[in-house]
Write a structure and sequence with these properties.
About 30% of the residues lie in helices and about 20% in strands. With about 700 residues, the chain is α/β, with parallel strands linked by helices. The structure holds ligand 6R9.
């Protein structure tokens, strides 16, 4: 702790330019400075003056709070938690943890013994505080002009009706609900309705929102894993010019499940009229029910079920480096306190803000920062169903102007693709409502950062580059806008209560300017508690690599000023447009193709997506390589995982570089994929070094 505090305290000197705050505002960005990493971008004095954590005295405001949060986490977090509604208070202690595998089972608990309900805190608490008339959700459809809105009171009514319906059909203790919906208002409604009916007894239903970009097979896998009582979906969705028939994907997933002996009794289907008529929807009588036919008949009052702070709130599947996706389990109390608090500080949230996060609720960002974090703060959110480039690349800014969005949170992949389309799409709109920008999902390269800052934010809006993970529940390393100068591309400093450390291969903490593996010491309230049904895998994956720490899977360097620079995954996980994809998942999809004998997948740099998927494929003996086969291999991956996982390149590999023990040497494949042929390194340990030359000669096939 003390080492870490030293880093944070070194910030006191850091803003070496901090004395210049009053003269220099963010305009310094326009100049090209010698070293990118040393660019400091100062918040304007006006911004700093109004910020929740401001910097009249360099970083003192942050440092004081941070110091307290790590020296007295129980005191710090219980004070914040007291602002929420708890039916019963926690006892006997605020938190209990063991994250050291050497000392027995890994266990993380926050606010145990307390009872609460996250839906109550997000909705009833805000309505009771007199904000029932405030807009909770502005919904913008795919077509400009298609829109809707719900106040907090109306949202509460809708949630209660669905809760009552779910109770009526027997959803209760320990039951799972799978939600497979696009960004309609019904998506947060469904999440909150599940949370509301928590558990009649002790366990809340396990809710799992599945990203609507996943294929039937991926959906089936998730359904089989948690065996839900109900699947909630809609008939179709319009994304840009395309209509996607979600219900048909659900139908095939459910058929697949039935073949595996799991039959789902109820498929609650929302009729998304703008995308598809009811009559055109394929229907299975007895199993399928239209949302609009049943839900509105139920009462708009529904008492909440109080659940233990440590009762499960939701499961979210994410990719690991091996095997099947992991069901990351989050519980209720700590997650609630953590998402609400991180949202408030990292976006400098004020009640007058209009907040828009472009993420889909099928990802953790949509759970924590479309739904829970903002609504717990009583914020007005924008939910957008469509595609950001439809009808043209100016759509985002059209929406920003329409709803007077003040906080805009998105992913670097979108920033890069909009940047490529040109400034005119941006400058055509006023954007004067914007005051804070945010980025998530992967490192944001300094040039995209600058464009986002200068062009989108008119050099006025600090960028909160938030580093975190499905597993962490909420932000871990992120700027507090207004509290300190930023460096384009750095996620800056840890959030309150978070103790990041950088370790070497042996697990020794390294200090000062360094790079290595990013780990976290001690737990924080929003941490996941286990991998669903596999606590052993939870320990092996995250706590065994560096005993005593939570291992993030990311590489990180820290510069002389203590700023953190995330350098990407160090395991076999590829980050495509912010989506985590395990190389193993893509490989197993490829080898399921009858003509594919073996596959090895690596990530390569991609201009827009951050990383692209590059697949080396060995065909079954005697099968010739052809363009058609290439297409059919790609299609197999699309069908099994989803379109976002489709390989960008298939490289025919009559043989793969393997060690004598049969391990594929991905290091070499990565170099071949990125055409860094003079950096292949030592190939002498290969069982057959000649395969390398063969692969190189087939590069342009
Ligand atoms: C929230 C989310 C987590 C992985 C994480 C890291 C990468 C996310 C980042 C970032 C650099 C940021 N990542 N945010 N890297 N800077 N601001 O994305 O969760 O889908 O679980 O992905 O994404 O590699 O380990 P998830």
């Amino acid at each position: 702790t003390s080492d870490h505090l030293r880093h944070v305290e070194s910030m006191a000197q850091l803003p070496s330019g901090a004395g210049k705050i009053s003269h220099l505002n963010a305009v310094i960005l326009g100049e090209s400075l010698a070293s990118e990493e040393n660019d400091l971008v100062f918040p304007s004095p006006e911004f700093s003056a109004q910020a929740l954590v401001s910097s009249p005295n360099r970083c003192a405001g942050y440092q004081q709070m941070y110091r307290r949060s790590v020296e007295d986490p129980a005191g710090f977090w219980s004070e914040i938690a007291s602002q929420f509604c708890w039916k019963e208070k926690w006892h006997p202690e605020v938190y209990a943890e063991n994250i050291d595998v050497g000392k027995g089972t890994v266990r993380i608990e926050w606010f145990k013994g307390a009872t609460t309900n996250i839906c109550y805190n997000a909705l009833d608490r805000n309505v009771e505080a007199g904000n029932g008339g405030k807009v909770a959700i502005y919904w913008e459809g795919n077509e400009p002009g298609q829109d809707g809105q719900l106040t907090y009171a109306e949202l509460l009514d809708k949630v209660c009706q669905l809760s009552n319906y779910l109770k009526h059909v027997g959803v209760g203790k320990g039951d799972a609900v799978v939600i497979y919906l696009p960004m309609l208002m019904e998506l947060p409604i469904a999440m909150l309705a599940c949370a509301r009916i928590g558990a009649v007894h002790r366990y809340s239903p396990q809710m799992s929102v599945v990203f609507a970009g996943f294929s039937a097979e991926s959906l089936a896998q998730r359904i089989l894993d948690c065996k839900p009582k109900v699947v909630i979906t809609c008939n179709a969705v319009q994304r840009g010019p395309k209509t996607i028939h979600l219900k048909e994907i659900v139908d095939s997933a459910l058929t697949e499940c039935a073949n595996d002996g799991i039959s789902i009794g109820l498929c609650l289907t929302y009729e998304n009229q703008s995308a598809m008529e009811r009559e055109a929807t394929k229907w299975q009588e007895g199993r399928d029910v239209w949302w609009q036919d049943v839900v509105p008949k139920f009462s708009t009052k529904c008492l909440v079920e109080w659940v233990d702070a440590e009762d499960p709130l939701f499961l979210l599947y994410t990719s690991g480096s091996t095997g099947k996706p992991k069901g990351v389990l989050h519980t209720t109390g700590g997650y609630m306190v953590y998402t609400a608090t991180t949202f408030k500080y990292a976006f400098d949230y004020k009640p007058s803000d209009i907040y828009w996060c472009t993420a889909d609720c099928g990802w953790i960002t949509g759970h924590s920062y479309v739904t829970y974090g903002p609504l717990l703060n009583g914020a007005t959110i924008v939910v957008f169903e469509g595609a950001p480039s439809y009808p043209d690349s100016g759509r985002c800014w059209d929406i920003v102007d329409k709803y007077k969005v003040s906080i805009f949170y998105t992913a670097p992949t979108l920033v890069r693709s909009l940047m490529r389309d040109g400034d005119e799409y941006v400058t055509r709109y006023s954007r004067k409502s914007l005051r804070v920008l945010g980025s998530v999902g992967e490192p944001i390269n300094p040039s995209a950062w600058r464009w986002f800052f200068n062009v989108v934010g008119d050099s006025r809006c600090p960028i909160s580059d938030t580093w975190w993970q499905t597993e962490t529940g909420g932000f871990m390393i992120a700027p507090l806008p207004g509290a300190w100068p930023q460096k384009p591309g750095s996620a800056t400093f840890p959030f309150f209560g978070v103790l990041p450390v950088i370790v070497d291969e042996k697990g020794n903490e390294i200090e000062g300017e360094c790079s290595g593996y990013l780990c976290i010491k001690k737990s924080w309230p929003g941490a996941f508690r286990t991998l669903y049904g596999d606590h052993e895998r939870f320990e092996t994956t995250y706590f065994k690599p560096f005993p005593g720490y939570y291992f993030t899977g990311d590489g990180c360097s820290r510069d002389k000023d203590g700023y953190h620079w995330l350098t990407g995954r160090v395991d076999d996980v590829i980050n495509v447009s912010g989506h985590r994809i395990g190389t193993a998942e893509v490989e197993s999809a490829l080898v399921s193709h009858p003509q594919c004998a073996e596959a090895a997948v690596v990530g390569v740099e991609h201009e827009v997506k951050g990383q692209g998927i590059y697949a080396f494929v060995t065909l079954v003996e005697g099968v010739p390589y052809s363009e058609e086969l290439q297409k059919s291999l790609i299609l197999t991956v699309r069908n099994q995982i989803g379109a976002f996982a489709a390989p960008d390149k298939i490289h025919w590999a009559p043989g793969l570089p393997k060690t004598r023990s049969g391990k594929i040497m991905r290091r070499i494949l990565r170099k071949i994929a990125s055409r860094q042929l003079d950096e292949l390194g030592d190939t002498s340990t290969l069982a057959d070094p000649s395969v390398v030359d063969q692969l190189i000669s087939l590069s342009d096939c």
